[in-house]
Structure formats: C-alpha cells, structure tokens
Specification:
The protein is α/β, with parallel strands linked by helices and 345 residues long. The protein has 13 helices and 8 strands. The protein has one domain: Aldolase class I (TIM Barrel). Bound molecules: glyceraldehyde-3-phosphate. Belongs to the DeoC/FbaB aldolase family. DeoC type 2 subfamily.
Length: 345
C-alpha cells in the first residue's frame, strides 16, 4: 500500500478509496437497477449503443476536482522508496521509434533486466515494449528473465489497416515471442458509432493472442470526452481486453489523471458486474517520479490494493525510468547523482 500524506501534513490518509467513494462516475447502474443487465448486452451496433450510452455520464468537473485533490498528497520517506520501486516494477519500458535498431533494443532490454547495475536491489521493470519487427531481438535479450515482452500491433499507432492485416501483425508478434500485445482500437469506427466493428475486431485479436495478454489502447486523446473514454473502456472489456490502456504516446494529450480515474472506475465496476478483473495501463507523456506517484495514489484511492501490482497496473513510458532511478538513488544516499548516473535513451 502506498501510504500518503495530505499536503497539510495531517498524517497518513486512509482515503475514502474503493469502498467509500463512488467517484465522479458513480457505479452500479449499468449492470443493475434501472440499467441493462450485462449478460443481455447484444453484439449489434444497436445493442451496444443502447448499453454504452446507458452508462451514467461522467462529471468532468468532478473528475478534475478529484484528481487535483489527490495530486496534493505527498508520499514520504519509506513509503516513497516503496512507491518508486513499485513504479519501476510496473513499468513497460518502451521504444517505439522508426529509428529503432537491434542494438538500441538490446540496450533497452539490458536496462530492463538491471535498471541500476550498481545496485542489485533495484528491481527489474515489468516489460519491454517494442514494434513487432523488434520482438525477436528483444525475446533473445530477455530470455531466462521474468521481464515480459510486449509488442504494439494492429497497425500501431493509427490502426488504419484491414482487420486481416491487424491479425497477421498480432500473429507475427506472438510467434516471435511477445507475451503481451498492445493493440489500438479503430477510433474512426468508434467515433462513428460502429461499435460492433470495434468489438469484433478486439475479440478477433484477443483470439489471435492465445496465451498472450491483450492490452487495448483507447487513444483517449482522440475520443473527445470522458463519457467516450468510459464507453470505450467498457466496449474493450466486453470484447475480452485483459488491460485497457490510455494512449499510444504519439498524440497529445496522452495519459491524464482524470482519464485514468475514469478507466479505473470502469474496471472496478466491470469486476463488480462480471467477477473478471481487467488491468489499466497509463501510457504516454509520463516522465517524472512525481507524476508516477500521482497515478499510484489515484490507483490506491480509486480501486485499492487489488490493482496495486504490476499484474494489474502498468506505466507505459520511454523516459520515466531515468527519473525513477535518480529519485531512488537520492532516497538511498541523500544526494542527487549527476545525469550521467543514468543512461541517455
Ligand atoms: O506506450 C508507451 C508510450 O508509447 C510511451 O510514450 P512516451 O514516449 O511519451 O513515454
């Protein structure tokens, strides 16, 4: 658990957390009360629209206020050291550049396995995340370790390709050794209300993944509202997503705390309705320890301990690790190391 303190130093805050606060979105109605029953949700555009548009609306002002309040919490000393290590263990260390080379991917994998070669106590990251063409190289570099290998697929980042191409992309990444697939949804289809198309494509990619976990990237910065983020989260979960993920990191805005709050509430409510737990990945634009700790506080206060592990919450980031390592060294030694303490990515 990440022990937090309010900014006024009032001491550890238990929080109103997962059981005490329904949050800006509220809970329950989609699956009980006056709302449609989850088991009866059909898979046609009409049925899915009826369900998704029957979800309670998100109070955008309430979401902003809630996340701003939580951002005032400070995480101190031993709790901070624990939280920094947890953030490292939750990290999908990512390189998704056209200029990626086998050498760069091998260096990234070495860093993923031993983020701080000077400190054997520093934990490895959760996963390395690369393009499908780099999976074989990363698989060889990670062999014999517990570091997972994620690959973006389905014509990342735009998703603008026929479904058959997306399935082939997924198949190739899994065959080359990826045990996690990060797919993008077809945002054009979603925004046009072609929900069955989006659902069926996710379900087909899920089948293609076999034992690999599927993270479904909503690209929340293109969805236009938190109501849409909530609908896209439910659609992905109904189609079989193992994780819902905010962003590709290729467009702005990427991850934001109000967006992740809405997604956390969605996975919480989905578990209450179905008994199935789905993870959340905050990705894109997260560069500092301070930002990462804000997300951990948000997880703790929204869904609590069941999600506070790398199995259920991830950060997708290309440059966050260096700042986590600098902060980790500062907590251990009391002094900041120079920038040459970490590798330049
Ligand atoms: O999935 C992870 C993102 O692509 C990384 O985005 P970033 O480069 O802004 O950290």
């Amino acid at each position: 658990m990440v022990a937090t303190q309010s900014a006024d130093g009032a001491g550890p805050v238990g929080g109103d957390g997962p059981t005490g606060d329904a949050g800006p979105v509220g809970r329950g109605r989609p699956v009980g009360g006056d709302g449609p029953v989850l088991a009866d949700v059909g898979r046609t555009d009409r049925a899915l629209r009826g369900f998704l548009h029957g979800l309670p609306g998100v109070d955008e002002v309430g979401a902003a206020r809630r996340t701003a309040q939580l951002a005032t919490r400070s995480v101190k000393t031993t709790a901070k050291a624990y939280a920094v290590d947890l953030a490292i263990r939750m990290l999908d260390l990512t390189t998704l550049e056209g200029a990626d080379t086998d050498g760069r991917v091998r260096s990234l994998c070495a860093k993923a396995r031993r983020p701080d070669p000077a400190d054997p106590g520093c934990p490895p990251v959760a996963a390395v995340c690369v393009y499908p063409s780099m999976v074989a190289t990363a698989a060889a570099a990670l062999r014999g370790t517990d570091v997972h290998l994620a690959s973006v697929a389905t014509a990342f980042p735009s998703g603008q390709a026929p479904t058959a191409v997306k399935l082939a992309d997924t198949r190739a990444a899994v065959a080359a050794g990826a045990d996690e697939i990060d797919m993008v949804i077809s945002r054009g289809a979603f925004l046009s209300g072609r929900y069955a198309q989006v659902h069926d494509e996710i379900a087909a990619v899920r089948r293609e993944c076999g034992p690999a976990h599927l993270k479904v990237i909503l690209e929340t910065g293109e969805l236009g509202s938190l109501d849409q983020v909530r609908r896209a989260s439910w659609l992905a979960m109904l189609a079989g997503a193992d994780f819902v993920k905010t962003s590709t990191g290729k467009i702005s805005p990427a991850a934001t705390t109000p967006t992740v709050l809405v997604m956390l509430e969605a996975v919480r409510d989905f578990r209450a309705a179905t008994g199935r737990q789905v993870g959340v990945k905050a990705a894109g634009g997260i560069r500092t320890t301070k930002e990462a700790l804000r997300y951990l506080v948000l997880v703790e206060e929204t869904v609590g301990a069941p999600w506070l592990s790398p199995r259920w919450f991830r950060f997708g980031a290309s440059s966050l690790l260096n700042d986590l390592l600098l902060q980790r060294a500062k907590l251990a030694t009391g002094a900041y190391h120079g920038p040459d303490y970490v590798t330049v990515d």
